[in-house]
Write a structure and sequence with these properties.
The complex is a heterodimer of chains A (155) and B (129). Chain A contains five helices and five strands; from the N terminus they run βαβαβαβαβα. Chain A is an alpha/beta fold and 155 residues long. Chain A is globular and about 30 Å long. The termini of chain A are far apart. The chains are: A alpha/beta (155), B alpha/beta (129).
Chain lengths: 155, 129
């Protein structure tokens, strides 16, 4: 089981397939390895089975369990940076996220540039391993450098 | 960190500064106060501060700008922001600034104390590591 940081992999936890597909495509184009989880069970299975640097977590999956899940992530996967994506931003949930060290909080609809900034912020907090110690095969060297001009449609 | 925590309270409201000064002094803490961010940065240069508790809306330099300067010049010092005008936007900005906490006014003084104690303890552990 891999749980160390530095693998430059992103787990997208989103129940809406059209959204997760679009996010995955954008992040893949940026050179990241992206895995999608469409349920909380899948999310925990992926986190337990493999290593990730960043989790993009949609509040569609959370319902009323956000604080519990964030605490669990802090306790069991402290090296994974978390970005929350919300359709219904509320002060209470943002403060809960802040207190659980969430690195960014995106409000739908957001632009691709917002997503890229959040990913940059999240991966900036992950401690990279030397390339010969990368724990996930095929590690991408390019972190978030995006040289392609992408129009910023809202997601 | 010393056994007696050293806290810098930054608020343009004299009443709040006095209230917090009296309360934390009563806890045995060493308290410095400033009415704006500019004065706060001067105090940061002069004293060993363990934690900054700052209002967001202030003249001259607001709490967000103060946070950025503290994180640049004193990255080891946690910042707790407080505001009487909480909003989704300012809370997200605070989250992105990696502040230790975001407290809404009016606050429960004992809950504020608990939050500060937790962050002081965390800082102390970090320094011991």
């Amino acid at each position: 089981m891999f749980k160390s940081s530095g693998c430059q992999r992103i787990l997208v936890a989103e129940s809406q397939k059209s959204v997760s597909r679009e996010v995955r495509d954008v992040l893949s184009q940026m050179g990241h390895q992206v895995v999608v989880a469409s349920s909380l069970d899948q999310l925990m299975t992926h986190l337990s089975a493999d290593c990730y640097d960043l989790l993009l977590l949609s509040d569609h999956l959370l319902e009323d369990e956000a604080a519990i899940l964030l605490q669990k992530l802090n306790d069991e996967f402290p090296s994974v940076s978390v970005v929350l994506i919300s359709s219904t931003p509320q002060l209470k949930s943002i403060l809960s996220a802040l207190r659980h060290r969430v690195v960014d909080y995106l409000v739908r609809p957001f632009h691709l540039n917002d997503l890229k900034s959040a990913v940059t912020r999240g991966l900036g907090q992950a401690e990279p391993l030397p390339t010969d110690q990368a724990c996930c095969g095929g590690r991408q060297s390019g972190r978030t450098v995006d040289k392609t001009a992408v129009k910023p449609p809202a997601i | 960190m010393n056994t007696q925590p050293s806290i810098l309270v930054v608020d343009d409201e004299l009443l709040i500064r006095d209230l917090l000064y009296d309360f934390f002094t009563g806890q045995g803490w060493s308290i410095a106060v400033a009415g704006n961010g500019t004065k706060a940065m001067q105090i940061m240069q002069e004293k060993n501060i363990d934690l900054v508790l700052s209002d967001i809306r202030m003249p001259e330099m607001d709490g967000m700008e103060l946070t950025a300067q503290i994180q640049r010049d004193h990255p080891e010092v946690p910042v707790v922001l407080m505001t009487g005008y909480p909003s989704v936007d300012s809370a997200i900005a605070a989250l992105r600034s990696k502040v230790a906490d975001y407290i809404t006014k009016p606050f429960n003084i004992n809950e504020l104390l608990k939050s500060l104690e937790a962050h002081l303890q965390e800082r102390s552990k970090g320094q011991g590591a």
